[in-house]
Amino acid sequence: MWFKNLKLYHLTQVLELTEDDIQDKLAEFPFRPCGSQELATMGWTSPLGQGDMLVHSAAGKFWVTLKKQERLLPAAVINAELAEKVALVEAETGSNVGKKAQQEMKEEIVQRLLPQAFTKNSFSHGFISTQDNLVVVDASADGKAETFLAMLRKALGSLPVVPLAKQSVQAELTHWLTDNSVPNDVVILEEAELRSMEEDGAIVRCKNQDLASEEIMNHLSAGKTVQKIAIEWDETFSALLQEDMAVKRLKFTDVMTEQNDDIPREDKLAKMDADFALMSAEIVRFSKRLVEIFNLQQEQE
């Protein structure tokens, strides 16, 4: 299972955790399916997709998975039924249905339709590396990452983390282009987002564009800064690196993803274990490199 996004967090205190510790704590908050009158439920499930173990460890890194199930009840369906019911009542009584009465009708419709609604499952993956004081969440949105961390904190009792970068690195990303100061293990690709520093300022998004071109330099000379930039790192993966140090559209190279192809296809669990060990080690290596590149050591002290 290869992560597609990265939200990186620094543990501000040493966590003394073992696989058994985490298993026992997560077992108090396991996933359970939605009841007939529940809109959504959330809890921990097996990262490997089977068995009772709610944590999978490899080389000191603990992989955990949060599962969410929600009932799909489209607002259009509810509103259509509500409109019909309101029209019927108004026709029978000859008076308008007030907002409070409509809200009560709507709640009754939701309760009646919920047991018939389809359910949708979604999964959030992450891992803890206590030896590296790092927590990684595979999430593209802040809200999803924060939910994952909140549930993990609830289960573990404590999770003292801060973002890997507490401040924007837009100035440093901009210097990569203006000063040609790109680190030697980073290759700039042909995609970026530039933004004016003024309130409600202009935004320029470009793809398939040489970022060293005169056109891009003119935007930067006019005061725009780099908010997002596509990179390839150390022949390991390509991604979109953001000014808040979030990583999106993470795609590992074939050289990486094919390293464990010698494991028999039928031995799915062994393949997942090997892939996680390989992937998590590279993510930790990348996070340490980010700390070096952007001089984040002082922020973490």
Topology diagram in text:
Elements: E1 7-11, H1 19-26, E2 40-45, E3 56-58, E4 61-72, H2 75-93, H3 99-113, E5 118-129, E6 134-138, H4 142-156, E7 161-163, H5 170-178, E8 186-196, E9 203-207, H6 214-221, E10 224-233, E11 237-242, E12 247-252, H7 254-257, H8 268-293
Structural account:
This protein has 301 residues and is an alpha+beta fold. It has helices spanning 19-26, 75-93, 99-113, 142-156, 170-178, 214-221, 254-257, 268-293, and strands spanning 7-11, 40-45, 56-58, 61-72, 118-129, 134-138, 161-163, 186-196, 203-207, 224-233, 237-242, 247-252. The radius of gyration is 24 Å and the shape is globular.
- Give the overall form: globular
- First-residue to last-residue Cα separation: 33 Å
Radius of gyration: 24 Å
Class based on secondary structure composition and strand pairing: alpha+beta
For the biggest sheet, the summary is: 7 strands, antiparallel
Q: Averaged pLDDT, please?
A: 93
Helix share of residues? 25-40%
Poorly predicted spans = none
User: What's the total count of β strands?
Assistant: 12
Write a compact overview of the structure shown.
This protein is α+β, with helices and mostly antiparallel strands and 301 residues long. It has 8 helices and 12 strands. 26% of the residues are buried.
